[in-house]
Every structure is written in structure tokens, then in C-alpha cells.
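Record 1 of the preview.
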Amino acid sequence: MRKVPFINGEYYHIYNRGVEKRLIFSNQYDVSRFLQSMEEFNTLDPIGSIYQNSFSRLRRPTSKSDRLVEFIAYCLNPNHYHFILKQIIDGGISEFMKRLGGGYTKYFNESNNRNGALFQGRFKSVHIDTNKYLLHASAYVNLNDRVHQLSNPTSKWVRSSWGEYIEKNQNDFCEKDIILEQFSNISEYKDFAESSLVDILSRKTDGELDMNALLLEEI
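->
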């Protein structure tokens, strides 16, 4: 039993990393497969596997009522990921994360001729219980690669929802209105998020990073 229960209509910061901090994305195809899994496993009716689902006409949820969760923001880093999720149905987050973790681990192990766990235990979760927390968490997740100041060659595999938030022509995978409707325009949100990032990096550099104080959770 989790210490933090998942409640319908509430928001949660979900994250996990590779066992022993190992890479969970080794190439661009891994990233694409994980993104595909984020979409196709998010449905009320189990799909079995992505391969099996490729033969179905009903490959993706057709409406919000067909989903287990709503994505508000995400960031996929080379060795860990962050999500902000809203639970839609009872048990939605737990079921979605079970499918995502199990399905991707099976794919990764088969692709890399390995066995065993890929992720470091059960995924972590923090209840986002205030609007202030939600706003800062969106900045933290959208810009999480910058939080970790990734500059090594694997950083090219980073993917996040930042582009969805600041570029109108990006695909609408996330439900962004809960965040963006609180700002006059996209530029105002961009300024807010980048200002929040400066605060995070400043505290991290000074050795004072306390994510509870920031209303965030550090990986």
C-alpha cells in the first residue's frame, strides 16, 4: 500500500530512474518506443502489447473518457523520467504505470539481450496538493534536463513537453490548459518557468537544494 493514495481528479509528480542509475534510453528508437508506450498503454481496455495493438483499429484512446490518466507534463532524461499526471479513474495511475514499466522493460531487455529489473524499484509519487506546487512542478518537469544541466552526448535523447507549452504548432499530447490558462499568454508562462528554473539551479549550486521548500521533489 502506498503512503500517498491516488485520488481521481488530483495531480501527482511521478518519477523513477534506471536501476543503479543506468541508462534507460540507449538510442533514439528507445525514446520513441517509450513515448509510444506513454500513449498506447493509457487506455481503459488493456492492449496486451504494442506489437499486438499494431493490428487493432482501436490503437489509441478516442476520448478523455477512454484514458486512465491525463498527462500534464513530462521529461524523459537518459537515465530517468518525470511525469505530472492527473488520475481519471480509480486505480488509473497504478495500472498505467504497471503497463508502462512492464512493457518497456520487456522491450528494452529483449533489445539489449539482458534480464532483470530496469527501473529502481517502484515508481515514486508526490501529491501535488496546491496550485502553487502545480505551477512550479510544471516548470521543473518541462525543463528537467536543464535542472540536471545535461550536456553529455546522451542528452540528445532528452524529450519533454516544453515544446508543447511554448510552440503552438507542437502536437497536443499533454493537457496544458490547467497551467496555461493561468497566464496571459505563452510568453508569460515561458518567463515564469525559466525564472523558476533559475531559482532551482541557484539553490542547487549553493548546496541548499530543498525540493520540499521549492514545493518539488528532486530525483
